[in-house]
Write a structure and sequence with these properties.
Strand content: under 5%
Shape: flat
Number of strands: 0
Largest sheet: none
Distance between the termini: 13 Å
Helix content: over 70%
Length: 19
């Protein structure tokens, strides 16, 4: 769920939070 908010900001950081 947090990755959703990060996706709107940083695409790269979003993938890192996913793992």
């Amino acid at each position: 769920m947090v990755l959703f908010q990060r996706q709107t900001g940083n695409h790269k950081a979003s993938q890192r939070s996913y793992i």
